[in-house]
């Protein structure tokens, strides 16, 4: 399979990227484009779902066009919790995407918390009730008459929208589904009680893909080429898989926000101050991970990039804030922490993080750890299939 390529579409909050990797996980090609956000009012954050698709299609065409004779497998990694509503028949978005940062569902979430539902939801999903997750965004979309008049309505996270545009199948994976507040993280299905709590009909949600199984063939008419969409993975789980898949694997992504994560293992364990989420284990099956979050890291760094003293001070602040989360996540069994994301290119923050954590800090091969994790998954799956065919 030396001529095989993993093509990765990385759909972030500020940029969309497409990359090609070979089986040695060497990045061969990289293209990217900015994607706009709008803020119609305070606390609302939206993106044009059709624009996201158009940019994604253009970037993929550029990458795929560079390798006309290669065997290609496609994977997607994406900003999580962002939701899109579309018509199954028309394939057209019915509203701007509601971005993960959007907080228009805060009132609904607070009502559910006030009624005492948070503990149940936390034990079923690993998450607290929050407008950060997708459920309250989906409920808001369902309250819009121009959306609910469509009888073939689908509402899903961004990965399912792109999977539908590429393959005609509305599918999502467990690493995205587990961020919605509608997914039972232990039984691995859309949960009827959670759906009732948020008053969301199951029929509008995408189907759940099977871990390890490919999603399906990409519509040949889009790129005049035959290849498969193999996997979709939420961005933070993808970068964690790039770092490793064994219990104790720990990573920090320094990006739009800072996301420390650690694989816990096959047992569901809640932590008072952290999110429990699904990650990808060594056999490409779901395992549990703890995750923390520090908001607005990139927004604090960008204005001081050309001001050395201010930049250094900001890096020290972010390292200190990150350490408060790390203290909750790591223990003596963790000996090293893999880091990625744009801010990880700064040596000062990594040196300080090593001092604070007393752990070895390892910079990822590429700071695009989210894309690297998808490429690793694709080739791990290919190797697993090859091994099975020899049995």
Examine the secondary-structure arrangement and name the CATH architecture of one domain: 2-Layer Sandwich
| CATH-defined topology of one domain | Nucleotidyltransferase, domain 5
- Report, as a whole number of angstroms, the end-to-end distance: 19 Å
Biggest sheet overview: 6 strands, mixed
Binned strand content: 15-25%
Oligomer: single chain
Order the strands across the largest sheet as they lie in space.
Answer: 3-2-1-5-14-13
What would you call the shape? globular
Question: Spans of 5+ residues with little confidence (pLDDT < 50)?
Answer: 386-391
Contiguous helical run count: 14
Number of strands: 20
The first-level CATH class of one domain is given as: Alpha Beta
Radius of gyration: 20 Å
What is the average of the pLDDT values? 94
Helix percentage:
25-40%
**CATH H-level superfamily of one domain:** ATPase, nucleotide binding domain
Based on secondary structure, the structural category is alpha/beta
Q: Could you walk me through the main structural features you see in this protein, from its secondary elements to its overall organization?
A:
There is one protein chain. This protein has 391 residues and is of the alpha/beta class. It has a domain at 238-371: ATPase, nucleotide binding domain (Nucleotidyltransferase, domain 5), CATH 3.30.420.40. 35% of the residues lie in helices and 25% in strands. The chain has 14 helices and 20 strands. A hairpin with a 3-residue loop joins strand 1 (4-11) and strand 2 (15-21). Helix 10 packs across helix 14 and helix 12 packs parallel to helix 13. The two termini are 19 Å apart. The model is unreliable at 386-391 (pLDDT under 50).
């Amino acid at each position: 399979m030396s001529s095989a390529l993993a093509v990765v579409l990385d759909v972030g909050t500020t940029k969309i990227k497409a990359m090609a990797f070979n089986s040695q996980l060497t990045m061969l090609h990289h293209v990217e484009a900015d994607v706009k956000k709008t803020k119609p009012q305070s606390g609302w954050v939206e993106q044009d779902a059709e624009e996201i698709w158009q940019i994604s299609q253009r970037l993929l065409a550029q990458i795929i066009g560079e390798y006309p004779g290669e065997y290609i497998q496609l994977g997607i990694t994406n900003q999580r919790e962002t939701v899109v509503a579309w018509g199954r028949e028309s394939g057209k978005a019915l509203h701007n995407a509601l971005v993960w940062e959007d907080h228009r569902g805060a009132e609904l979430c607070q009502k559910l918390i006030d009624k005492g539902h948070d503990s149940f939801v936390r034990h079923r999903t690993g998450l607290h009730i929050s407008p950060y997750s997708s459920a309250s965004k989906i409920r808001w979309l369902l309250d819009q008459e121009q959306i609910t008049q469509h009888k073939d309505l689908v509402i899903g996270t961004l990965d399912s929208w792109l999977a539908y545009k590429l393959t005609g199948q509305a599918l999502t994976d467990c690493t995205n589904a587990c961020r919605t507040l509608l997914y039972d993280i232990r039984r691995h299905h859309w949960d009827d009680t959670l759906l009732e709590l948020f008053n969301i009909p199951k029929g509008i949600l995408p189907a759940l893909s099977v871990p390890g199984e490919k999603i399906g063939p990409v519509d040949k008419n889009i790129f005049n080429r035959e290849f498969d969409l193999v996997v979709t993975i939420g961005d933070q789980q993808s970068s964690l898989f790039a770092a490793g898949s064994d219990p104790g694997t720990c990573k920090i992504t320094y990006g739009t926000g800072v996301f420390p994560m650690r694989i816990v293992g096959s047992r569901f364990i809640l932590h008072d101050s952290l999110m429990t989420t699904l990650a990808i284990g060594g056999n490409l099956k779901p395992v549990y991970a703890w995750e923390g979050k520090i908001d607005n890291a990139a927004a604090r760094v960008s204005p001081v990039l050309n001001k050395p003293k201010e930049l250094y001070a900001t890096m020290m602040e972010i390292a200190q804030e990150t350490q408060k989360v790390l203290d909750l996540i790591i223990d003596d069994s963790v000996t090293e922490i893999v880091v990625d994301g744009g801010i990880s290119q700064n040596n000062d923050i990594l040196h300080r993080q090593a001092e604070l954590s007393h752990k070895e800090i390892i910079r990822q091969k590429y700071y695009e750890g989210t894309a690297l994790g998808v490429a690793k998954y694709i080739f791990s799956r290919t190797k697993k299939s090859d091994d099975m065919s020899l049995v």
